[in-house]
Design a protein that fits this description.
Helix content is 73%, strand content 0%. By secondary structure, it is mainly alpha-helical.
Amino acid sequence: MLIKSEETAPETNKYNGYARDMLLSLLRKPPSGMRADVRELSQKVGIRA
């Protein structure tokens, strides 16, 4: 869902605190098989992986 929002409105993930918190949580414990996707999205919005 966050990847879709990044494609549609990148500023949402970058500046929305709730979206950033979700991304930080996903970085700590990514869903199975999505580690690379979570890391890539984090880098796009400026969160260090």
